[in-house]
Design a protein that fits this description.
Blueprint: H1 4-10, H2 20-23, H3 25-49, E1 56-61, H4 67-75, E2 82-88, H5 91-108, E3 113-117, E4 130-136, H6 146-155, E5 156-167, H7 172-183, H8 187-192, H9 197-200, H10 218-227, E6 232-237, H11 245-249, H12 251-260, E7 276-282
Parallel strand pairs: 1-2, 1-4, 2-3, 4-5
Antiparallel strand pairs: 5-7, 6-7
Length: 285
């Protein structure tokens, strides 16, 4: 007879006990740059250029509980004529975002962010009705991202913008790490993730949700955005590391990375040192 209680305990979602990304210094820096610089600064510039519009719609696709859109919303608080929306397929995540928005409205006097559950392949917006779309670390989870990009193009107004971020497979430090790991028979990974292996690497049987099934080089995304009549008008570099237990243990080295990060933007090869890339796309007039 199978011990269901024992099996349930052993099969408990690994993410419930995964702690690395809650205390990692490098991951905190990654989130700061993603939300404040890649998304927040970009959207702020776009809204500033749209000052003559009476009402602007900004939609976060794949918003989860709203952490990205809340940060961008706060950075752009000076713009009063903006309607903010968050959409996610997961109803519980969207509901959590709505609850947080209600708290911000009642306790902090913030304008609301309107959350809804919806499918990125069938967006609940009319044609040519959205001014700005942000979608951060979402498209790599879609087996076929092209239909979702077409939906973005459909709902964007002519001249509207989509800011999409996704992992960068041309990241030189990560590629070098994989090579070293193969050459050392797995030693490098164990050394790099020392103290975090059991927490950060789920068992193969774990139900971890949608994985990274569409990680493509920039040239592929560029072609797809052109096909959907939203050509990329600007690339935005992300941080060099996403979350690194090695650099968390060696904080002096990590401090150097943080200090040098803004300087990397001047180098032609800067995207070789970017863990993810931001692609600002503009729909044709």
């Amino acid at each position: 007879m199978v011990d269901n209680k024992s099996d349930t305990h052993q099969m408990q979602d690994w993410s419930d006990s995964e702690k690395f990304f809650t205390h990692s210094w490098t991951y905190v820096f990654y989130l700061w740059k993603l939300r404040k610089i890649m998304l927040g600064k970009t959207v702020h510039k776009l809204l500033k250029a749209m000052h003559d519009k009476e009402t602007i719609r900004v939609v976060d696709l794949g918003c989860g509980p709203g952490m990205n859109v809340f940060d961008v919303h706060d950075i752009c608080a000076e713009f009063e004529h903006v309607l903010w929306f968050g959409l996610d397929l997961n109803q519980r995540q969207a509901a959590l975002g709505a609850s947080r928005s209600a708290f911000r409205v009642s306790k902090r006097g913030r304008p609301p962010v309107h959350f809804m559950s919806g499918d990125i392949f069938r967006l609940p917006f009319e044609d040519n009705s959205v001014d700005i779309i942000i979608s951060s670390e979402v498209v790599e989870h879609l087996p076929d991202p092209l239909p979702a990009l077409k939906e973005m193009s459909r709902v964007l107004k002519p001249g509207g913008y989509a800011m999409v971020t996704t992992p960068n497979p041309a990241n030189l430090p990560e590629s070098a790490g994989y090579l070293l790991d193969r050459l050392t028979g797995g030693w490098f990974k164990r050394f790099y993730w020392k103290g975090e292996d059991e927490l950060s690497a789920p068992p193969l049987s774990a139900e971890v949700g949608f994985g990274h099934v569409s990680v493509h080089p920039f040239s592929v995304w560029q072609q797809w955005f052109e096909e959907t009549e939203m050509p990329v008008v600007k690339k935005v570099r992300g941080p060099m590391v996403l979350g690194s237990p090695f650099f968390d243990r060696h904080r002096f080295l990590f401090g150097l990375i943080v200090a040098l990060d803004p300087l990397l933007d001047v180098f032609p090869c800067r995207f070789w040192l970017s863990s993810n890339i931001g692609m600002l796309c503009r729909k044709g007039d």
